[in-house]
Sequence to fold (490 residues):
Amino acid sequence: MEKQSKHWEDVRDLFRNWREENCRQSEDVVDLWKEVLANHFGKLGDEGWLVLEQVFIAALDCHSMEIANFCLSKLNQEFPDSMRVKRLKAMKYEALERYEDALDILDLIIKKDETNAASRKRKVTIYKSQGMIIEAIKELTDYLRIFMADQEAWMELSDLYISQQEWNKAAFCVEELMLHSPFNHLYLQRYAEIKYTQGGYENLEIARSYYAQAAKLNPNNVRALYGLLLTSVHMASNSKCPSQKKKESIKLSEWATNQLSQLQSSNDSKLFSSQILEGMGNLQIGNDSKN
Amino acid sequence: MASSCELSKLAYSKIILHAFKYPHTSVNGVLLANEGSSNHSVKYVDAIPLFHHNLGLAPMLEVALMQIDSYCRTAGLVIAGYYHASEALAEMSPDIVSQRICEKIAEYFPNACLVLINNRQLAKQMTHTSLSVVQYCDGGKWKVKDKENFKILPNNDSALDSVSNLLSKKLYKKLVDFDDHFDDISQDWLNVTLKSMID
Fold:
């Protein structure tokens, strides 16, 4: 009901926001386009082409092929020789699972323009969609040899390695990200998660220090706080841990518990952190080499 | 060896809603049964959605399972199964992460079931249950459960109607999984308000 009373300018601004933040709100984009913006397309000016591209991709996501075809034909009319529009056509084939046709178009684009990063990345997603993770990894590593500063690509590669349980390689990708942005608490937290999953006492220690740094940079990062609590308690109960580090770990776990309590006190959800300390030993999923 | 496996309307609805909320990533969650359930006939009464990012990482999984375990002890339930929807449309076999998690669950609840969502059968108007079930047997083997031994309560058709109704109201937007909870700790992973809308 809210959407129907939205003014087209508000929707336009909302779409602009979503484009800038790279949000994946496909269902909302398609709905708002149908209800509001489609009727005011003429008023958008040059921004209209960006909106068409955005709606096209959202429509593919929702498999609304009619809307997707409408957007693509309008874009094709206006920009008949554009590589960018050709890439969108390849995405349409991807959505229709016509992967060979999609790859043909992308290879053509790359042949004409070797610096076209986006087309290379689409090839990775085509492999990924078909479950061909090894090929996707190879394509992405080749891409990163050329486009080394692409943080999104390093993150994607890290995710692919995690799905293959290649912890060292996944960690390496996150190390590249941390070099780019050493104060990004999310990268630090992700690194800690990989190290923890890898298992072993040394990795546990590394995980604890990265969780601690992440929590220091952002004390509201719930995963970092829980991670700090988890790693500290495991270290404190581990026979390999020297007594100095044990005391340190206990202090850290207390700090993390306090932070979590403070965050939870503002709502009435159940607080399980004290029970977490009790039940600590029971449910270890990671490698048995942890102890 | 459990001969039959039933899924309550609540558990089934939550599984489907979770898959619909995050159609572009893999999702997973655990299934809960009443404490003291026999191995001959397991009835899953609830499902707790876990994650939609990096399902293979251990720390948050351990934290989530500990919290669910605590909840189970207060509610007379036990973690007895696991569900998973793959990221890729066509993927139909359980990946290594799902297997390992379900094996762990089977240590505490023998013959735990691993429920896989068949992505291709999902639709806004559900006509198939869109689930396939494998069961963990002693010796580390996975046995596929036939359709006769697996049903949704009260019966498949009314469950499908009920879920289609929920989907048309877009109630999947209200579902909270553990990833949502860790992003915003005020969100309720027990989905208490959603439960009343489903019943």
